[in-house]
Each structure stands twice: as structure tokens, then as C-alpha cells.
Design a protein that fits this description.
Largest interface: A-B, 43 and 51 residues
Shape of chain A: globular
CATH architecture of the largest domain in chain B: 2-Layer Sandwich
Largest sheet of chain B: 5 strands, parallel
Shape of chain B: globular
Radius of gyration of chain B: 21 Å
Order of helices and strands of chain A: EHHHEHEHEHEEEHH
Number of helices of chain B: 14
Strand order of the largest sheet of chain B: 4-3-2-5-6
Helix content of chain B: 25-40%
Number of strands of chain A: 7
Structural class of chain A: alpha/beta
CATH architecture of one domain in chain A: Alpha-Beta Barrel
Number of strands of chain B: 18
Strand content of chain B: 15-25%
Oligomer: heterodimer
Bound molecules: iron/sulfur cluster
CATH topology of one domain in chain A: Aconitase, domain 4
Number of domains of chain B: 2
CATH class of the largest domain in chain B: Alpha Beta
CATH topology of the largest domain in chain B: Aconitase, domain 3
Strand order of the largest sheet of chain A: 1-2-3-4
Strand content of chain A: 15-25%
Distance between the termini of chain B: 48 Å
CATH class of one domain in chain A: Alpha Beta
Structural class of chain B: alpha/beta
CATH superfamily of one domain in chain A: Aconitase, domain 4
């Protein structure tokens, strides 16, 4: 597990350059350009189970879902930040990517610390310190638990289709 | 306790009497905006579209604007796929490449009305608050889901109240005002919040309000909104036949914070690279050399913006070592600017006119910067890499400032060239 640490206001152009937004939309197309203008190492070296830690307003800027799609596809365990921009936050819910707002955990992190996340219990462990974070509301957990927004919509449409006698 | 604008609209759209701040509500938006990203959106739900169709063919407003005309085979294929989808599902509100930038088209064609709830898979969807709508950005996946179901969830936000007093003193403009506000509030200062403008808004034209509402997302806002007044009514009466009902906050609505601005004290400002809230008075950066000037985008590509630029540039010429790109925000604006001589003045002054659309704003084509170059732009974002090159710099300012600076080739206070 590796921790990727970044500062405040990491915007969507840093997470995924705008010039690729109309040519790359599948995880395979997205991953090579993730964080390209912020940290060129990330796309090749990030591994499943890695964690991102960042400052305020992570994901500000465009409505651009390639970052959340790509980070989820790489297998990033969670993004822990002091705060998130709202479109990015929604997008992460829609993709089933775990975002945790916990300024104290970010401040506590020192290079070399291991970081563990237990979303069920709502606890982050940074080195030897534990931090609690609030659980998500049930409406939002339901989307994450379904495996993302579209999975949830698919299930509901099937249900409705059966009721209408459509399929 | 009174209700905020956001509470009232979200209660209305979720079919409830009242809603609490912080509550999550299921809402049915009046419109869903998508643009070139429609191709990627429908690709996610091909099977479901075949089985279930779309929820409502009047719900989407689709505008092809981001990379127009198509820059390569891939973007051309995306556009083609969107046209097929529109035909196949009988989408009512469709605007093909060349019509203009989505945020201009949605408002100018009367799709955004007071009291509406509009979501869009573009962060600057907040623009429609200029005409009293609750408008906010979502991602592609959510847009796909709304195409199928016609509904989504929203959390009822807290609100902040920005009260305006007095008049702007030209050439100081709405762009200077909103840059100043973002500089003060910070890039995340309005995160998750609904931003309401109050006070002497009657002194701002619809174009001014569009510029201001457009940039709300640059301080993190969920939506930005202006009250509906005679200015709005006379603007809408020109193209809308439908009935609409305006919604506004109660006098005693609760606000997280309140800010006051005396418009007569606003001065020309510039946002320095690579942050929109990195705002300084123009005197601090005067004489900074600029390679490319850009007037256009969904922030400042409207007729009054082009007219202001033409006034400054009339009889003058763009500096020999710089270039000026001008993109009218829509075909209608381009037509009006052609009819009143604005385009002729700009072309004579050395401007290159690009087709209506987003153009170089997102760095995908047309006017990409080279490493080490500087651009002074009327756009809304100056992030690193935004105009296609991570080693270039973008400065943001008003159309008057960009035009004045284009003559000298260095950042110039427009008050020096305009009386
Ligand atoms: S003009 Fe720029 S900011 Fe506006 S919609 Fe187009 S790309 Fe986005």
C-alpha cells in the first residue's frame, strides 16, 4: 500500500487534462493520463489498495468524471482530504469510489506512515493514531453498495419493468 | 423562519410543502443539459436505452459545442453518434455544432426559466441562475441515469447572501466584480452552497448576470442565483411564450454568511495563473507581456463583450508580436456582431474570428498554447494545462482589459485607453 500525498485545490485539469475529455472515456483510455500534469509517476505506479491524501477542495473545477472512473478502476482504496469539491464528491459516489473528509487525519499524516481505512466502522488509522469519520447517509450508501449509480438504476428499472410487465 | 431560494425550489421539485437544509430529496429536474459528452453518456446505457427508452424526450437539451467543427475522427464520430441518438429517440431540444456554446444557447433559446431546476453534465450549468433558475453541475454517469429515470437526488444546501449596492463604473465590468468576489471568498469558499445575489441587481444587465452566475462554481458554489425583476422579464418576454413562476427567498431566510459589495469601488482585476482566486488589482501586473489574447467563452462571449472590445480596438491594431482570438458565444451573437459592424472592427484590428463554440477554452483544439507562452483570456478558468499546454500561463480578465492589452501586447488598464 502506498500513500499519494497532495496539497490544496487539486483541480480536475490536474487529475485528468481537459484536452483528452472527448477522446478518452473508458478506464483503459483514462488510466495512462490520470494525474498527468500533477504527478507523472502516478499513472504507472499506483496500485490497488493505495490511498490518496490531499488538502482542501480536492477535485475542484470541471464536471469531469474520468478522475473518479480512473481512480476506481485502478483500485484506489479511498481518497482522504480536508474537503472535496461537490461535483467530484457526487461523481465519486456515482462510481462507488470512497471519499473521506477528515482534516485531522490529513494533518496527522507523516511521510512513511501506513494508512488504513475501515469504512464500515468509520475509522482511519494513520500510523498509530485513529480518527473517526462520519458515516454517509443511507441514500448515498445505497448507491455505493449497489456498485455505483448505474448499477442501482439498472436494478430499479428491471424491477419497474417487471411490474409494468415490460420484460 | 423563512425559506431560502434553494429550499423553495427543491421543495417544489420534490413535491413537498417544505424541505430542511441538509435534507436529501429526490427531484425531477425540468431539463438535463449535455453537450459533446452526450456520446460518452449514451455509451454507458446502450442496452437500457434499447429496452426502456429515455424517460422524457423533452427533458434533455443537447448542444454540440466543445470541439466544433470536429477536430479528428474520434470527435467527429462522437458528434455523429449524438445525431443518431437524437433522431432515434426524438429528442426535442437539439442544437448542432455551430449554434453556440451550450450555456449561451440554453438561455437564449428560452430553455432556462425562473423557478426551474436544471442539471447539466458541465460545471458551468450554474450560469442559468442569471434568470432565476436553480441550476447545477453533475457528472456523466448521473446524466446517464437521469436520461433513463428522469430523476435524481440533491442535498438541500445552506445559502450565502451577497448584497450588491450601487453601479459599476465602466470600463469596470461584471467580470471584474465576480473575479473580485472569488478572490475574496476563495476557490472553495462557497463549497456546497447556494449563492444568492441581493440588493441593486437591477443595475446589472442579463449579460452581466450571466457572467457572474457562470463563475459561481469557481468558488465551489452548488448554484448561483439572481432574483427575477423587470430586467429578467423583459429579456424573457422576447423569446418565451410559456408561463413561468418566479421563486425567491423570504426576507427572514437563514444564511450561513452575508457579504456586501459597493459596486462603485470595484476596479479592474486580473486572476493570475494557475488559480481563479489568485486575484490582484491590475496595477500589480501591468506591463506583463502576453502572447495570445482570447475574447469569448460562456463567461464573456456575448454581444456586449464583443462591442466593448470593438470600441477599444476601433482604428487600432493588435500588437505585432501578439495574436487576438475572438469567439462569439453563439451564431445569433455572431450574426448581430456582423450586422452592427462589431466583427468588421475586430477583424480590421487584427482579430482572428473563430466559430461559435468553446474553442481554445478547454485546450482540445484551436489556439492551443506553446510552452512558455502567456494568454490573457476572458474565460473562467486558468488552471495549469487548461489551454492544452501544462507549461503555459493563463491570466483571466474582462473583455475591456483583454482588448486594451491586445493593443499594447502587455497587460494594460482599460481605463487608460477608454474615457
Ligand atoms: S466555453 Fe469553456 S468553460 Fe464554457 S462550457 Fe465551453 S469549455 Fe466549458
Amino acid at each position: 500500500m502506498r500513500v499519494w500525498k497532495y496539497g490544496d485545490d487539486v483541480n480536475t485539469d490536474m487529475l485528468f487534462p481537459g484536452k483528452y475529455t472527448y477522446t478518452c472515456s473508458t478506464p483503459d483510455e483514462i488510466i495512462p493520463h490520470l494525474l498527468e500534469d500533477l504527478d507523472p509517476e502516478f499513472a504507472t505506479k499506483a496500485r490497488p489498495g493505495d490511498v490518496i491524501m490531499a488538502g482542501e477542495n480536492f477535485g475542484c473545477g470541471s464536471s469531469r468524471e474520468q478522475p473518479t472512473v480512473g481512480l476506481k478502476a485502478i483500485g484506489i482504496e479511498a481518497v482522504i482530504a480536508k474537503s472535496f469539491a461537490r461535483i467530484f464528491y457526487r461523481s465519486a459516489i456515482n462510481q462507488g469510489l470512497i471519499l473521506i473528509e477528515c482534516p485531522r487525519a490529513v494533518d496527522a499524516y507523516r511521510e512513511g506512515d501506513t494508512v488504513e481505512v475501515d469504512p464500515e466502522r468509520g475509522i482511519i488509522t494513520v500510523g498509530s493514531q485513529e480518527f473517526k469519520f462520519p458515516k454517509l447517509p443511507p441514500e448515498i450508501l445505497a448507491i455505493r453498495d449497489a456498485g455505483g449509480l448505474l448499477e442501482r438504476v439498472r436494478a430499479r428499472l428491471k424491477e419497474r419493468g417487471r411490474i409494468d410487465g415490460k420484460s | 423562519m423563512g425559506q431560502t431560494f434553494a429550499q423553495k425550489v427543491l421543495a417544489n421539485k420534490s413535491g413537498q410543502e417544505t424541505v430542511e437544509i441538509g435534507e436529501i430529496v429526490t427531484v425531477r429536474p425540468d431539463h438535463l443539459l449535455t453537450h459533446d459528452n452526450t456520446a460518452a453518456i449514451i455509451a454507458k446505457i446502450e442496452d437500457e436505452l434499447t429496452t426502456y427508452g429515455i424517460a422524457d424526450r423533452e427533458l434533455p437539451v443537447i448542444v454540440i459545442d466543445h470541439v466544433v467543427p470536429a477536430s479528428n475522427e474520434k470527435t467527429a464520430s462522437n458528434h455523429k453518434r449524438i445525431r443518431e441518438f437524437v433522431k432515434q429517440h426524438g429528442i426535442v431540444n437539439f442544437y448542432d455544432a455551430g449554434e453556440g456554446i451550450c450555456h449561451q444557447v440554453v438561455v437564449a433559446k428560452g430553455h432556462a426559466l425562473p423557478g426551474m431546476l436544471i442539471v447539466g453534465s458541465d460545471s458551468h450549468t450554474c450560469t442559468y441562475g442569471a434568470v432565476g433558475a436553480f441550476a447545477t453541475g453533475i457528472d456523466r454517469t448521473e446524466a446517464a441515469s437521469i436520461m433513463l429515470t428522469g430523476e435524481t437526488w440533491l442535498k438541500v444546501p445552506h445559502s450565502i447572501k451577497i448584497s450588491l449596492r450601487g453601479h459599476l463604473t465602466p470600463p469596470v465590468s461584471a467580470k471584474d466584480l465576480i473575479l473580485q468576489i472569488i478572490g475574496d471568498v476563495g476557490a472553495s469558499g462557497a463549497n456546497y452552497l447556494s449563492v444568492e445575489f441581493h440588493g441593486d441587481v437591477a443595475n446589472l444587465s442579463i449579460e452581466d448576470r450571466l457572467t457572474i452566475a457562470n463563475m459561481g462554481v469557481e468558488m465551489g458554489a452548488k448554484n448561483t442565483v439572481f432574483p427575477v425583476d423587470d430586467v429578467t422579464r423583459s429579456f424573457l418576454s422576447r423569446m418565451v411564450k410559456k408561463d413561468w413562476q418566479s421563486i425567491w427567498a423570504d426576507e427572514d431566510a437563514p444564511y450561513l454568511k452575508s457579504l456586501d459589495y459597493d459596486l462603485s469601488r470595484i476596479e479592474p482585476v486580473v486572476a493570475l495563473p494557475h488559480r481563479v482566486d489568485n486575484v490582484v488589482r491590475i496595477s500589480e501586473v501591468e506591463r506583463t507581456p502576453i502572447d495570445q489574447f482570447l475574447i469569448g467563452t460562456c463567461t464573456n462571449g456575448r454581444l456586449s463583450d464583443l462591442q466593448v472590445a470593438a470600441n477599444v480596438l476601433k482604428g487600432k491594431h493588435v500588437n505585432k508580436w501578439s495574436r487576438l482570438l475572438v469567439l462569439p458565444a453563439s451564431r445569433d451573437i455572431m450574426l448581430a456582431a456582423a450586422a452592427d459592424g462589431t466583427l468588421e472592427t475586430l477583424i480590421e484590428a487584427g482579430a482572428t474570428i473563430l466559430p461559435p463554440g468553446c474553442g481554445p477554452c478547454l485546450g482540445a483544439h484551436q489556439g492551443v498554447l506553446a510552452p512558455g507562452e502567456r494568454c490573457l483570456s476572458t474565460a473562467n478558468r486558468n488552471f495549469k494545462g487548461r489551454m492544452g499546454c501544462r507549461d503555459a500561463e493563463i491570466y483571466l480578465a474582462s473583455p475591456a482589459t483583454v482588448a486594451a492589452s491586445a493593443i499594447s501586447g502587455v497587460i494594460t488598464d482599460p481605463r487608460q485607453v477608454m474615457e
